[in-house]
Amino acid sequence: MSLSFALLQFNPSSVVVMDIEGRIRSLNANAERLLSTTEANAIGKSYTDVFGPSLSQRVFSLVLKAGQTGAVKAIEATLPGGRRAKLRATAGPVRADDGNVSGIVFVADEDTSSPRLEQLAEREARLRDALKRYLGDTVADMVDARPSFVDVGGQTQIVSVLHADVRGYTQLAEDLAPEKVAALLLRYHGVASKALRESGAVIDRFAGDAILALWNAPEPQTDHARMALEGALALQHAARQAGTELGYGVGVHTGEAMVGNLGSSEYQNFTAIGDTVNVAARLQGHAKAGEVICSAAALAAAGEGVRATALGPLELKGRRAPIEAYRVDAHS
To answer: What's the CATH number for 5-116?
Structure first.
């Protein structure tokens, strides 16, 4: 989208424009009042500093979903001035004349109405949105449809597991300020998770610079191995489109794992454990930035149409037997 200075300043909504690193480029007078700041004080700062922790989390969620629906979302957050507010907000890409993404725009209107039914509806929407952010759409929908789904326990089943890890992250974290590292991970994890979700993955968890994703759980997916390899390639393509600062090494394996709600009666999360998960992580350890390495089991389960280069048997840390591995080059 193209935003002129006049449109920004006279827009009745609160409008904030950020660059692709999450730094503030401009904001209008309404945004100054909402965020208890001035444009002169905000420009160049990370959005996490200007928005504060509560609103930043909501904005992060909106940015991750940008481009999926473009819908306005009802959110509630504590503003930098300490006031709790309900907002109707959206976020989307700012595009340069050549069509490339040059930043992000956040637009919000404060909702000052307070009927009880509206409050309850917004609270339900907020809780459901939080559930999806923490669990992903698939698991959240299962919890909503089947209350018994939250019972502790799991089952052994065949799954395809992807483990992705940012190369050079330790050095990066040492060299850059924490907010710059967070902004980079926001950008790369955002496009990576979007690519994985679009390939049918359930994102098990983010662990710093790492991503763990599953296919064929909690709902069955007949072609899960192929979907996992396609998702891995889509992740790499999305990461290349996002920039050149970071790159992922990716490992994929197909096999049996214990899948379900694991933990305790007080705290649990939907996850997978077992040798299959470990093998995916160890294969990832052999992948260079931009590479996808899969096991022979994953490649065989994916069927024809996957172009891969044989790497021979790889010795994986912690395993007695080597794993026959392939570098995945493309799929048809």
So the answer is: 3.30.450.20
